[in-house]
Amino acid sequence: ALGREATPTIRAAIASDNETVRIAGLEAAGCAGGADLVPMLAAWAAKGSDTERAAARQSLEGLSGDDVDKALLTALDATEPSVRVELIDAMRRRGSALATDQLMKQARSDVPQVRRAALAALGELAEPAQVPDLVGLLAEQAGGDQAGDAVKALVAVAKRTSMQDRASQLVLARFSDATGPTRAELLHALGQLGSARGEAALREALKQNDDAGLREAALRALAAWPDDAFVPDLLDVARTSDSPVHRVLAARAAVDLIDRSKAPADTKVEQLRQIMQATQRPGEKRAALAVLAKIHTPGALELACEYVADESVRAEAAQAALQITQAIGKTEPKAVAVAMRKVAAAPVADEQKQQAESLLLEIESVQSYLTQWEVAGPYMQEGQNYAGLFEISFPPEQPGAEVQWKPIAVEPLGNHPAYVDLLKVFGGEQRVAYLRTTIESEASQPARLEIYTDDGVKAWLNGTVVHANNAARPIMPQPDTVNVTLQQGTNVLLLKVTQNNLSWGAIVRLRRAKAIDGPVVGEGFRLHVINAESRFEAGTIMDVNRDGKPDILCGGFWYEAPTWEKHVVREIREEGGYHYDFANLPMDVDGDGWVDTVGAAWHNKMVYWVRNPGKTGEPWPVFEIDTPGNMETAIIADINGDGQPDILPNIMSAAAWYEFKRDPAAPNGVRWIKHDLPQAAAGHGIGAGDVNGDGRCDVVAPNGWLEQMADGSWTWHAEFQLGTTSIPILVHDVDADGDGDIIWGLGHDYGIYWLEQGRDSDGQRTWARHLIDDSWSQPHFLLLADLDGDGVDDLVVGKRYHAHNGHDPGANDPLCVYYYTFDRGAKCWTRHVIHEGGRVGFGINTIAEDIDGDGDLDVLAPGKSGLYLLENLRR
Known about the structure:
Largest sheet: 6 strands, antiparallel
Radius of gyration: 38 Å
Helix content: 25-40%
CATH class of the largest domain: Mainly Beta
Strand order of the largest sheet: 2-1-5-10-7-8
Strand content: 25-35%
CATH architecture of the largest domain: 7 Propeller
Shape: globular
Number of helices: 24
CATH topology of the largest domain: Methylamine Dehydrogenase, Chain H
Structural class: alpha+beta
């Protein structure tokens, strides 16, 4: 460490012509220098470059020695104001106890910046003995530019030394003889001091209808009052004063006090209501709405929604409602659902409307959880474990038996907002407990229970057993699903939940049948019925006959544009409600200029291509590529980055991709090459895209993803579990942050989701799961397409009709085709109707293409319920 003997060297460095050397000297001064360096450091702090000034200030603060503070005081005799300011600031930062008398003198300086620095320092350094002097200083400077600084200094010292009452007494002693600006500044000080002595004086000043200046000063002072004691007085002025200025000041002050108030939320909401009723000016209403947005109660939300009807503050009211909803959406779903419908229906900005619709989707999802439970138990029996207890009838199962029920709260668990934690209530192992709730239904109607339990569960609805699963398990990703019929009125649901060991609890969702009043075509679309009798689930758009007009091909037929005349492609076998045709991927396989198709099928386990015979009109021949196993469908992806499309089938028992090369010596002029992928990628769901941003195509599967390495090998990352997913699983940078996020649907259940890719503090990849929509089921096929023409791809999804011939959850719910837009600022999705109700849905493989050449993308919708074209009318 440097010692005082280094001072000459430091001085020399500071005097150097080289800035780097000077800065080093200035930085070293604080460690090795003494009082003799104070004038030099103060000068550099005042006049140097930004870096030099920062170094000099740091050294002034760090100088050691008993004589440094004295040197700072002595140097104050310097005539240069900027140097004096630096010296005063150094005293403040050092907490110099010697400085206060000199600071009082500097606070009366003729130089404004010196006065301001001295007052700031006094606020931190002055002692109780200086309070009378500070009151005198305030009185002297009333009406001047630094009057506010004098008030701040006085209040800071009084609060720091607990002398608010004494300071208020001294202020009041000067108040009676003061006039004009001095009285205003004294009232300002009383407002900030917030003592009982000052309260009476301010309340009296508020009554001075004949002295407008005094009343105005009191109103301005009250904006700083520390509690809400004056809110009733201010509301009275805001309602009754003849002065527009006074009404505005009173309203603003009241809003400020309510913002800081610790009053109950309902009280604050009512006060804000009164303020907005009392004022006609949008400015004060906006201020009140900004405070209202911080009060997270249904009452606050209701008030915000009332003012969505007020055109002058509609945007602010809608924003307040959105903020409150984000805070209480999971705990107050009914209230916020009503509110978000109001916002969505109002003429608000598109961004706010979309956010309201997105929040409404989330809220409606939360509302489907059953939250009002009662619990009874625990019940045990000697020698019986959880499996044996499952079969034993305990009192809650016995009609007329006496049972003590008590309420039990729900809490969040993962993505579920309503978990009943039985372990927390009862603890233990090898026991059972019973849960009971009621479900109100306005009519007799079908519904679906989704029951997640740890461990086993037996369920009764209105006294009848509707489900039993004697299992030892944690809360699983997929629930037990039970189709039930709710009776009109009150329905009683009873659950028996077994406990083996470790965690113990239950989650239940109720899905009511979705009601849609007839078929609805979304705004901006037109429905074309291509073939209502078609039962093929895969389709594509391609120029079959090379006439320059895109046609439609679906299964065994193609439909010629523009009249959609039907032509035979080939005979396709049907088995069990399915055709041997699970994909129609358009590509000119053999290079003859006619677009062929590549397909995959479940029943014959075949990947194949179908050759377009051209103008001959002959049936299209089918050529086998491989028989790797049962397949749901296949997708096109450039896996190896050579610019040519490859085929990635969704094989249930294996994983592989196929490339082709045109070769006259090969059968049919095409040589297919199979590339096996690691077995981990097998299962229901597949997708492709650049997950990690290295420019190579990776493969995504339900339980993780395959990273393609530079040498073409693959590395498995088991980083997530998606369930029984859609095909494809989409890789897409949803939030435009530069990495690949993941979008998927549960192909045979309810729910569309996305995984947001991120990094933790250690740089490790993370995935955050977000719900997009779970109000409808069987989103088996997803695609990305810019339907609204804004340059950003939208998510296009349709419900698959009878994917498992009516046995999937929600299989008989109304069909739908939607597209979803993502607001990257609000990080929320908005659903838009393309078609809803009727017979239009998605099958297992389709496309969005500009079929009519008008510059926007149209959507093809094949499925077991028919073949349809949804024409985009945006251009």
